[in-house]
Amino acid sequence: METLKDQFAHGATQEADNRTLDLYHSASRQSYQLIGSALIENKHLESLRDWLLTMLMNGQAQSKNRQLNYHFSIHYFLLLNL
User: Fold this and answer.
1) Would the pLDDT of 14 be above 80?
2) ∠ CA(17), CA(19), CA(24), 5° rounding?
3) 18-58 and 66-80 helices, crossing angle to 10°
4) Are the C-beta atoms of residues 52 and 73 closer than 8 Å to each other?
């Protein structure tokens, strides 16, 4: 009974055999690769966003739409004050 309590306490309710682990690995590998790629892309997009907002705030870049410029300015101001 004590061994069973230890298994539940550590989250191990059963041991998987190698075949099950291989099946899980092959089924989940692509998902983890996609998650990793999305994380890298998000970091890149964040840096582009920060760079572009700085350029817009400094007047070094402009949008053809004045209301869009205002929206970016307010958004950047709010980000700085969070």
Assistant:
1) no
2) 100
3) 110
4) no
